[in-house]
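Lab notebook, bench 4. The sequencing result for the construct came back, and we need a structural model before the next group meeting so we can plan mutations. Quick request posted to the team channel:

Model the 3D structure of this chain.
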Amino acid sequence: MDYKKAGVDIEAGYKAVELMKQHVQSTMRPEVLTNLGGFSGAFSMEAFRQMEKPVLVSGTDGVGTKLKLAFVMDRHDTVGIDCVAMCVNDIACAGGQPLFFLDYIACGKNYPEKIAGIVSGVAEGCRQAGAALIGGETAEMPGFYPQEEYDLAGFAVGVVDEKDIITGKDLKKEDVLIGLASTGVHSNGFSLVRSIFPMDKASLDTHYPELGRTLGETLLEPTRIYVGALRKIQESGAVIRACSHITGGGFYENVPRMLPEGMHAVIRRDSYEVPAVFELIARTGNVEEKVMYNTFNMGIGMVLAVNPADADKAVKAAAEAGVEAYVIGEVQEGEKGVTLC
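Done. Here's the predicted structure in C-alpha cell form:
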C-alpha cells in the first residue's frame, strides 16, 4: 500500500502546478517577492507607502453550489472568476484596492488539466481585479469528495487609506442610490435555482429564446468584478458615501448593511430592466417577488450612495468602465432598512 493506492496522486499534483504556472504568472505585480511553489507568498509594502494611514482590508468566500452546474456541464474555466469576484467585490465595497489573492481547491481526485482550468479562471479574475495570485492549495481528498467533484474558495487582501474607507457614516438624506448592473445570477441563490430546474445536461442545454442562449450558459456566466468601475467612479471625483455588494440575501439583507441608524433606502423596481433570467426563475418556480428580491441580485450587483450632484458623474464613469449603471432610488430618514416600491 502507498499514498497513490490510497487515492492521493502526488505526481498529479506536480503536473497540475506545472500546468497552472502560466496562468499564475500572468497575474504578477512588481510587489510580489516569491515564486509559485513556496510555502508562503510575500508581498512588498512599497505599494502603499505613499498613503497617510494605510489599512489592510480582506475578504474570503467560495463559489457555493453553482459548482454543481460546472460539474454537469464539465466546464471549469469560469468558476474561478466567481471565486475572485466574491472576495474582491467585498474589498471594493470598503474602498479598498485588491493587492493579492490565494485560492483553495479541495477535490476527490486531482485531474491536472481540470485543476489548471479552474486556476485559469482564478487568474482571469485576478487580472480583472488587478490582484496578484500569490499562492494557493490543491488538496486531494479521496473518500471525502466524489472523484469528479471539488470545492473552491479564496481569500483576498487589499489596501485603502484610512481617510478613504467607505463606511456609510457620511450618508445624508436625499443621497442618490446608483445600481451597477450584474451579469446575471452571479454566485448566490443557486440552491433555489437547483430546486427549480433539473441539474442535468438536457435541462442545462435547453435553449430559451428570452435568454438568447442555453440555461446552463446563462447560469454559469461569471460574477462581475466591480473593482475597475468603482475606481473609475472615484477618479471621476464622485464621492461614494456608502456601498453594498448584493450577494446572498439580495436587496433586503445587503442594502441595510451600508446604512447608518436613522437612514432608510428607497429603491424603485421600475428604474431598470430586470434581466430575463430572473423572470424565468420566478415563473418556472412560482417564486414570489419578495422572495426573489430577498434571494437574488435581480440585475443589480452593487448599490452605491452618492451626493445628488455626483449622480450623473458616477453613472457616466461606470459606463466608461464597461458597466451599465442606473439611478435606482434615494436615501431617506427613517428606520434602518430598505423599501422596494
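The chain is about 35% helix and 25% strand.
Will bring this to the meeting.
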